[in-house]
Design goal:
By secondary structure, this protein is mostly helical. The protein has four helices and no strands. Helices cover 57% and strands 0% of the residues.
């Protein structure tokens, strides 16, 4: 299933950017429960996601990336795998 592929590629990106164990990343992973998710880390996340998937996240959507789940769904839409 394509969504599984996105999730399996996105989970290590989140883990690396935020210094988390990959198995600790889930749909609830968000700034509220990841203390190191600040504005600089958010920009690193955007760049890492764009690099991993070969996409450009539109500027108006960057601030909408407020959880793993939302980012996963956004990547699905931007890659045509939604």
């Amino acid at each position: 299933m394509p969504n599984d592929s996105i999730e399996s590629r996105l989970r290590p990106v989140f883990a690396q950017v935020f210094g988390l164990a990959a198995d600790a990343v889930n749909d609830q992973t968000a700034p509220d429960n990841v203390p190191q998710w600040d504005s600089l880390a958010h920009l690193r996340l955007v760049m890492a996601v764009e690099g991993e998937f070969g996409i450009t996240i539109p500027a108006e959507q960057i601030m909408d990336m407020i959880s793993f789940k939302i980012t996963r769904l956004m990547v699905g839409e931007l890659t045509g795998q939604a």
